[in-house]
Write a structure and sequence with these properties.
This protein is an alpha/beta fold. Helix content is 29%, strand content 25%. Ligand LLP binds next to helix 10 and helix 11.
Length: 404
């Protein structure tokens, strides 16, 4: 995304043209940004040669998943729906891991029938269900067990998963107990230790603590895991100059971890692959002026992008056309939904803006469209993929008629 002669372009297409041609609100993704993100992820972790499984929950658009496949990644899925979709995108079963605290028997059977690489289990009940299925089909199923390292990810509380009070994984004693109990099982083959402490992590220190805890439990168990699945969580810059994870430091930590534990590393990145490759193009419906602030009422709302309302997340909002007139008043960018929390951002010193102007909400490629809803009976936006000059619809805008 860059300004050329004051007009904002995503790859070689201007935001204003996109708004005119496809209407707003509109999700737009940059093909080349996705490609660059994947290449730089691979490059940063080259020396440990990991299996990279894209976390589909962050963006499950079929076309995007086909790109993920084209660029050589596997997939981390959490439901039958996601698994069906990634298979449709031609991602190979041997590059698919299935995570989640509550997979149903139907989902387990489906995953087993598709011969995916592994199912990361999170409770003894789940392992017992897998054993039952395996017994019936007379097969041994590859599984992982998720360890809860009781590590603080130092990120938003609502997206932390690695503390013992969180529902995820198995805490130390239970983990060791299960390992002991099932290592001789005729029906499950524990080949992986998985761990994921949270999302939008911007320092390598939580990962260091996580790796120490993982190392400790492996030493204690004396068990040889073929795979160590370190999950995702790599943070991105939502603000210019904000902190971002130093991949090379993380890579170094993993390298020294691997000296003690010779396993294949699996990653499950979502946000770091797709987060900054997505934009939400919106139009200003009205500007309501009050003494203390101007409410900038957009045609996008919390049903299109819920991260600000749900987590207090802040996404940059930039104008599609620059001018030199500054307004020092506070601007509160909001959506039209009948909830006070339908609010995107407060900005002071914004440029002069007018009704019908186009603005772009940035870094919405991850956990944007996937978390959208029809709240207030608003149709979901279209999704567009841009590759240089070419803008293609990859999901049609929902028609009002179809949701009424
Ligand atoms: N693996 C597991 C087991 C996960 O639970 C998650 C995310 C990931 C991988 C991918 O994490 P990532 O690399 O994207 O950080 N809706 C929230 C984020 C929820 C993350 C849930 N789990 C948000 O909008 O910030």
């Amino acid at each position: 995304m860059k300004y050329k002669k004051r007009h904002l372009y995503i790859e070689n297409v201007s935001a204003e043209r996109l708004a005119r041609q496809f209407d707003t609100p509109l999700y737009v993704y940059s093909y080349n940004k996705i490609k660059d993100n994947i290449n730089s992820f691979k490059k940063n972790f080259k020396t440990i040669n990991p299996l990279i499984c894209f976390s589909v929950k962050s963006n499950s658009n079929l076309k995007i998943l086909s790109l993920i496949n084209k660029f050589g990644l596997g997939a981390d899925v959490v439901s039958k729906g996601e698994l069906t979709r990634v298979l449709k995108a031609k991602i190979k079963p041997e590059k698919i891991v299935f995570s989640g605290v509550g997979k149903t028997v139907d989902e387990l059977k489906f995953a087993i029938s598709k011969k995916i690489l592994l199912i990361n289990t999170e409770s003894e009940n789940e392992i017992m269900e897998i054993e039952k299925i395996a017994k019936k089909i007379k097969k041994k199923i590859n599984i992982g067990i998720r360890f809860n390292p009781d590590t603080d990810a130092k990120t938003l509380k609502k997206i932390s998963t690695g503390r013992k009070e969180n529902k995820f994984g198995l805490i130390k004693n239970k983990f060791l107990e299960i390992l002991k109990k099932y290592k001789e099982s005729k029906f499950v083959n524990i080949i992986c230790l998985s761990v994921h402490i949270g999302s939008q992590i911007t320092s390598h220190i939580p990962y260091k603590n996580m790796l120490n805890a993982v190392n400790k439990i492996i030493q204690q168990s004396k068990y040889k895991f073929k795979y160590i699945d370190l999950g995702g969580g790599m943070g991105i810059q939502y603000k210019n100059n904000s902190k971002k994870l130093n991949y090379l430091k993380y890579n170094k930590l993993i390298k020294s971890f691997l000296k003690k534990n010779n396993s294949k590393i699996i990653f499950e990145p979502g946000r770091s692959i797709i987060g900054n490759a997505g934009y939400l193009i919106s139009k200003i419906i009205y500007i309501k002026k009050t003494n203390s602030k101007n409410f900038v009422i957009l045609d996008s709302a919390m049903n299109d992008l819920i991260r600000p309302a749900l987590y207090g997340a802040k996404h940059r909002i930039v104008p599609s056309k620059l001018n030199r007139q500054k307004v020092s008043k506070k601007h509160e960018f909001v959506g039209p939904i009948c909830e006070t929390t339908d609010k995107f951002l407060n900005i002071r010193n914004y440029q002069k803006i007018n009704q019908k102007d186009i603005v772009v909400i940035c870094d919405v490629g991850a956990y944007g469209m996937v978390l959208s809803s029809n709240y207030n009976l608003r149709p979901k936006p279209a999704e567009i993929l841009i590759n240089k000059n070419l803008a293609k619809i990859i999901t049609k805008r929902q028609k009002l008629n179809n949701i009424i």
